[in-house]
Amino acid sequence: MQRSFFPRDVFAELDRLQHEMQQAFDLSPSIRGAGARGYPALNVGATPRTFEVYAFAPGLDPARLEVELDRGVLTLAGERHADLPAAETRHTVHINERFAGRFRRVVSLPDDADPNGVTAHYRDGVLHVSVRRREAAQPRRIAIQ
Amino acid sequence: MNTPTSSQTPTANRDAQAERREPALMPPVDVIEDPSGITLYADLPGVAREQLDLQVDGDTLTIEARLQLNLPEGMEASHAEVGLQRYRRVFTLSKELDTSKIGAELSQGVLRLRIPKAEHAQPRRIPVNV
Questions:
Q1: Looking at chain A, which terminus has fewer C-beta neighbours within 10 angstroms, N or C?
Q2: Would you kindly state where each structural domain of chain A is located, as residue ranges?
Q3: ipTM of the shown complex
Q4: Is the whole-model pTM more than 0.80?
Q5: Which residue of A has its CA nearest to B40?
Q6: Is A103 helix (H, G, I), strand (E, B) or coil?
Q7: The CATH number, out of the four listed (3.40.47.40, 3.20.20.70, 2.130.10.10, 2.60.40.790), of the domain defined by the range A38-84+98-135
Q8: Least CB-CB distance to A37: which of B48, B78, B81?
Q9: A49-58, A110-119, B15-24: which range is least confident on average?
Q10: Is the pLDDT confidence value at A38 over 70?
């Protein structure tokens, strides 16, 4: 069963229900399953000077995170190892919901993203990428003569 | 680790109920059992140690946490997959678990809880006399 990351969100619940219905009635579901929301979850925002991307990717080694900005496309990739025991007979896995494996998420940024002004921080399991906007695109007050 | 609270005033109780109704994210978890206890991993990205609240009340384990991102001033969100600032998940523990010896670690947004089984519930090898 697919579980929603947003259980109290009515729309997310309806979305999940719809996916389950589709899975039940559709004889050819996607080979990658019904993962409507990928890992890591992303929040994206902008200030007048920067674009800000937050990736909710807990439990990663920051040294092995790949952050790349190529022609306005920001790519976040990496791998998360499972904390499950390796095929040991004396362990029982009761719940297994956490993501494990390779992941890759891509965000297309507006044209004024400056590839030379990218900073990335990883704290408390959140990767924060800040991309500067080019000077020319920043709002300027035009003096009226 | 907070101490369990059993006696509550009616107001505190109402507050707790209101708190419970406040929408929260359900963190994904892994629960693994071995002969000596249970290990629980929960994904709580964006949660610092001070923002995490673990409570055991009777046989109920409650994980609650606040998400803090320190967003830059004047940021306008254009796309949000995580739309709430709070995590909450409740589990019912079984009798053989020793709630007085729960160990908790929080590292890079992953909570690891170790709940050992009480001594009398630990597996013992019985020697066979010949």
A1: C
A2: 1-36, 38-84+98-135
A3: 0.76
A4: no
A5: A95
A6: strand
A7: 2.60.40.790
A8: B81
A9: B15-24
A10: yes
